[in-house]
Design goal:
Layout (H helix, E strand, L loop, with lengths): L1 H8 L7 H5 L3 H6 L4 H25 L8 H23 L1 H7 L10 H9 L6 H31 L1 E2 L2 E2 L14 H25 L17 H7 L1
Antiparallel strand pairs: 1-2
Length: 225
């Protein structure tokens, strides 16, 4: 149980995909102009990531190592098709808002990275815990960033007016430049907070990312193909 909680909880802060691992930035930058879009994309990623991890873990013993990346993509593509059909049936306006970024979940580096680095090497329960934790952390990140941009750029939150009289929205926050500015500021704040924590523990503050990119397994997968 302790191992399950460890693998689940790491995605909620320690290895938070967009802000700590700096993964999956394409949808983070592209669809987070509102909190609704961020939440919708995040839920889709949770579904695909969790089930992809589970399937990869279940069949890892029969996947030939030389074609494992192709198998991972085929599995995630099948799940993304299911997500698209569900969104078209039950959340069509959201599907239209997210557009091309729903099918692009197939090649999201979080999906492929967790399949390669974790699910392919661990049993199903741990793979599910890892997928859920990473997916929920990703969803929280997208929803928070989308809510922040919507609030500052439109004076709204989930489509409802929440600002005071006289508030002047910063229109650029819901445009492409606002995505880069918001993400950069949040990354700076999180790095600062982590360095403060390290100093309190008597550790040396670090410059740049505190997690190397090797955790995603991308480099090792490329060298072994």
């Amino acid at each position: 149980m302790n191992r399950l909680w460890k693998e689940f909880s790491k995605g909620l802060w320690k290895d938070l995909p967009p802000f700590k691992l700096v993964l999956g930035l394409c949808p983070v930058l592209a669809v987070t102009n509102t909190a609704d879009n961020g939440l919708g994309m995040g839920i889709a990623v949770v579904f695909v990531l969790t089930l992809s991890n589970l399937v990869v873990s279940l069949i890892r013993s029969i996947i030939p190592p030389k074609v494992r990346i192709v198998c991972f993509i085929a599995i995630s593509a099948s799940l993304v098709v299911a997500v698209e059909l569900l969104m078209q049936a039950y959340a069509y306006p959201l599907y239209q808002q997210l557009g091309i970024f729903v099918p692009l979940i197939v090649v999201n580096c979080i999906i492929l990275g967790r399949a390669e680095a974790f699910a392919f090497k661990n049993p199903p329960l741990l793979a599910i815990a890892d997928g859920l934790g990473m997916g929920i952390g990703f969803t929280m990140s997208l929803t928070f960033l989308g809510g922040l941009r919507e609030l500052l750029g439109k004076g709204q939150l989930f489509g409802a007016d929440v600002t005071w009289q006289g508030f002047e929205p910063l229109g650029f926050m819901v445009e492409a430049p606002g995505a880069f500015v918001s993400l950069g500021v949040l990354l700076a704040i999180m790095n600062f907070a982590e360095n403060v924590q390290r100093r309190r523990k008597g550790l040396k503050a670090v410059e740049g990312p505190t997690h190397d990119c090797g955790s995603c397994g991308g480099c090792s997968s490329a060298s072994n193909c």
